[in-house]
Amino acid sequence: MQEKKQPFWREILTISVPLIFSMTSVVLMQFVDALFLSWFSADAIAAVVPAGMASYFLISPFQGTAGFTSTLVAHYVGASRPHRAASAAWQGLYLSLISGSIVFALGFTAGPLFNWVNHSEGIKILEMRYFEITCWGALPTIASAAISGFFTGQGKTRSVMVVQLLGFAVNAVLDYLLIFGKSGFPRWGIDGAAVATVAAQLFITVVLFLLFFFSGKTKTVVWSDRAFDPELFKRLMRFGIPNGLRLGFEMLAWTVFVLFIGRIGDVELAATNIAFRINGFAFFPIIGLGQAMGILVGQAQGRRDPASAEKLTYAGFFMAEIWMILLSAIFLLFPETIYGFFRSDNPLSQFEMISSTGIIIMRFVALYSLLDACNIIFVTSLQSAGDTRWTMLTSLIANSLFLSVLAVADKLEMGLWVQWSAATAFVMMIALTWWFRFRSGKWKQIRVIESGEMYD
């Protein structure tokens, strides 16, 4: 029995390393956006995170639903029915067309939304423009989640990694050209960052679709499975919608958190936004590892082997925790150096205020990062096992409590440190909640695909 330990670690690393690099490319996109915009203007860096989080709040439920194709594919692979993978991906694409149209329409709500938030006038205008552009370009983001699931669910993660890294390169180049107006391109500032993000995501989606379409021996294999499958589509919605809503609840809470920080002051908002971009280097790689765990858990559940799913999850958690402890130490020991990367041509006094505020914020980030690995790994395993309804309801309750605390702190003008203390306590509380649920073992009895289909 002890000989199985080594294959577990090798299996995790084989699938997770490409996904970790893929998610690292996402955080690098965000980091480059923030870095260039901090050099462009203080208002731009203050506006990009709340606007980006607000647009992603609208996108995330649909992306989480469409991206559940990965779990469906993993279960079919585990059940020795890999030929159903293409059909599952097509259902996700059909959902993406509907979802992208809805988010496009919601992009026109920028005015009422940010007028209600009531940040300073200069920041509000920038927020509205970034929000509109990213909402109008939401379709590729949602569609890429559906197509990625076709590859990741089968454990074919290298293709996704290569495409994501190429997308990062496209984004970085377009950021430089469109934010600063280099090489004859217009100087668009935050608008340029939004256009670069949408263009890079469109590039990723097109390349992934071409790989998907020509996968297998011939394109006919994928094309013949393109039909709308009502039963499979319902299954995607049944398990995917709770997954998407859970993600949406989380994004709502964190978007409101950032918006409330912006009502405290521009310096506090800029410092918080930079902290979130830095924090991405801790949790985005773990999201990649979590995706790998989800694939392996889904495949194990597909072949009705919950014992392996449990062992794989704990092995992945220990790997993730090592990374989080390392990053927490860096955040705690070198905050001045980290914020120094964001120094710009803005008045020195303004940067010093942002930096001094950010140094304290990084202590909160370092603290909650210690349990964020627990948060990401265990909820991903629960979702991949099909425990989506319970996690959705729990997320709704927990995030509602979090929002209530934030609203009270905002109403009573308790300030930055109370808001960040509430955020830190929330992350640690919800992480332990997912762990206790996983330990209960109730997820082991859930079947994502019908038992009759598993053995036909």
Strand and helix layout:
Layout lengths: L4 H36 L1 H25 L2 H10 L6 H22 L3 H8 L3 H16 L1 H15 L4 H24 L9 H24 L5 H5 L6 H35 L1 H37 L3 H28 L1 H6 L7 H37 L3 H24 L4 H25 L10 H4 L2
Number of separate helices: 18
- Write down the secondary-structure element order: HHHHHHHHHHHHHHHHHH
What would you call the quaternary organization?
A: single chain
Strand segment count: 0
Largest sheet: none
Using only CA atoms, what is the Rg?
A: 21 Å
How many domain units? 1
Q: Roughly what is the average pLDDT, rounded to an integer?
A: 88
Helix content: over 70%
Ends distance: 31 Å
| Structural class category | mainly alpha
Described by the principal axes of the CA atoms, the overall outline is globular
Low-confidence stretches: 1-6
Fraction of residues in β-strands: under 5%
